[in-house]
Design brief:
Glycosyltransferase; two-stranded parallel sheet; mainly alpha; about 375 residues; globular
Length: about 375
């Protein structure tokens, strides 16, 4: 306990901040004649990280989204090109991973599929943050084997693409009804259907995460990715239209799962339709003044090789740096949803940060 307290004190009370102690060369502009410097960018990243850490220290927020918050720190720690910021992210994540292990020592009785997958996401990330629990991991792998592809994904990617008739949980009673059901079998409320892009996104993330962990969560990642051509064409940009947002997030998560959440670059010809969609819609995304979505545009296009020589990317990064809130966050200060607050901040951090990319991945086999 004393060691844990010491870690928290170092993180919270560190005088001056990482960016403030950076070498003088970090005062160089991000690009020639840029409004912001490297130090400005790193200071913004650190402010965002500290905001996410404050959310992660909130018991209710951590109970609801602990596994995702751990992944935010682990992801920044393994991708950020500033060694001091990467180390700070790892320290924050390690401290929170210790707490996550304390809160999740075993699988609850009668755990539903969502609980099992969330525990797998959290346990795998805690392992990567230096806090392993091999007994829990083995128990999770045994439990995962008892569930079918449709339990995890709503469809079987080995045999079919994401369908259009899988309902969302009932908005009145919360029941997850079976595929094809139009009215809730419990309360008779009319159901809304998941979009094919939303199901595709979930399937990419779930199967990818399962393979990293050593468990099959609905099938093979390659079986999901091969349905990408069936997801085209994508809907036009339309602010406030969830068909558009589902398509954008499906595309960005093709990038994230293929390049291991920004550990490597991707050649644009690997996914030419997706690259062109993001590139052509970037100006409209900037005009939307939506840092959450713009953040996912930013890091995905940078993963495809877009650089600050492109005026559109420069405009996106300058907008994000100008839109940071005084508390270090991005997004709506009056939003009471802790997920929206930290996730918007995380995507903005990812869009502006320096990366430590060292390779360009080969394209997937057709």
């Amino acid at each position: 306990m004393k060691r844990l307290l010491a870690i928290v004190v170092v993180i919270v009370c560190c005088v001056g901040g990482v960016a403030e102690r950076a070498h003088w060369r970090n005062r160089a502009p991000l690009w020639p004649n840029a409004k912001y410097t490297v130090q400005d960018r790193d200071r913004a990243v650190e402010g965002g990280m500290r905001f996410i850490y404050a959310i992660a220290r909130d018991p209710a927020a951590f109970r609801d989204n602990g596994s995702d918050l751990l992944f935010a720190f682990q992801n920044i720690a393994t991708t950020n090109g500033n060694p001091q910021l990467a180390a700070l992210a790892w320290t924050m994540g390690h401290e929170r991973a210790v707490e996550w292990r304390r809160l999740n020592p075993r699988i609850p009785e009668k755990a539903e599929v969502g609980t099992v997958t969330d525990l797998i996401f959290g346990s795998d990330t805690a392992n990567r943050l230096g806090v392993p629990d091999h007994d829990l991991d083995e128990a999770l792998r045994r439990q995962a084997a008892n569930l079918s592809p449709t339990d995890y994904l709503g469809f079987d990617p080995e045999h079919e693409p994401p369908p259009s008739d899988f309902p969302k949980p009932c908005r009145v009673c919360g029941l997850q009804n079976a595929r094809g059901v139009r009215f809730c079998v419990r309360c008779k409320t009319k159901l809304s259907m998941n979009s094919r892009h939303a199901l595709f996104l979930d399937a990419l993330v779930t199967t990818y995460s399962g393979e990293l962990f050593g468990a099959s969560l609905g099938g093979r990642y390659s079986d999901v990715l091969r349905w990408l051509p069936q997801m085209r064409p994508y809907p036009p940009h339309r602010q406030g239209d969830w068909a558009y947002y589902d398509a954008v997030y499906a595309i960005t998560h093709v990038v994230y799962t293929f390049n291991h959440y920004n550990l490597s670059k991707i050649a644009p010809n690997c996914f030419p339709d997706e690259f062109e969609y993001l590139k052509s819609n970037l100006p409209a995304a900037i005009r939307d003044h939506d840092p959450e979505t713009l953040g996912e545009y930013g890091d995905s296009l940078r993963a495809f090789g877009m650089t600050f020589s492109d005026a559109r990317l420069r405009e996106a990064v300058e907008y994000l740096l100008s839109a940071q809130n005084r508390d270090g966050s991005w997004g709506n200060l009056s939003d009471k949803d802790s997920y929206d607050r930290y996730h918007t901040t995380w995507t903005a951090v990812a869009a502006i940060q320096d990366f430590q990319w060292t390779q360009v991945l080969t394209c997937p086999t057709k």
